[in-house]
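Example 3.2
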Amino acid sequence: MVRTEVEKPTGSFARRQNQTRTVARKVQQKKRIDLVSHLIYQFTLLLFKATMTHTPPVFSAAQALRSAFLPRIQTHARRPVTGSLNVYKLKRLNHSERQPLQHRFGARAQQIPWPKIPTTPSLKAPRDEAIRHQRVHIVEEDGSIGPAIPLRQVLGRFDRTEYSLVELISPSENYGSICKIMSKRTLREQEYARSRTSKPKPAKQIELNWAIDPNDLENRLNQMESFIAKGKKVELILTSKARKRKATEPEAQKTLAAVKEKIQEIGAIQSKKMQGRLLGHVQFFLEGKK
């Protein structure tokens, strides 16, 4: 009987086997580490989602373990929870911002015989908390008027730094206080325009000496005509000046006649009657035709 001897592995072959076993152990160890890391990620994501939504978690622990062992799971491809919440919040903000400020206060009021709404409020119109009525109607951007709503609710619905609630019409038996949300910049511009138009323009004053030279008199009367043509009021004064030659009565009468003739020539209107006496202090209050 022939015995066959099994060839023992040589030294190099044994080393290769040991290296192969070492690599296999490292691969298995790496898989276990990856598995634990994936489980930690699943539980962390589950906890974070439950915290953000204030609702019980959707995934159970069994589902998390099952997903960990499934190959090529698409968990990493899901959108982050924070991103979806931000998108939803942004959409809600955009929806409210597209609405006009006045449309947030409810439906349109029923048909009421509304008065004519002024385009600009009066200078003494109450604003914001100065409005004494607890319920107000809001004039919308298209001119329609909404139902009566609490004043406190209105004041909390717009930016108080940029806008102001202004009362346009006081309440009556048929309706409450009618107000409008207006830009503070627009209100300042309206007040400035009113202040400029409400102030009376000062009259141009022209002073003549009774003994004025005929050429100087003609120039001053032409200046008066220019002011009247521009729509300005003129106060013409005839008086005796100190350190000047005093005119005789005929000279004074001639000067006065020249002034009256010029007034009649240019068609100026005397807003007041002539005041004063000859060789004294005489005043003419003149303005153009309206």
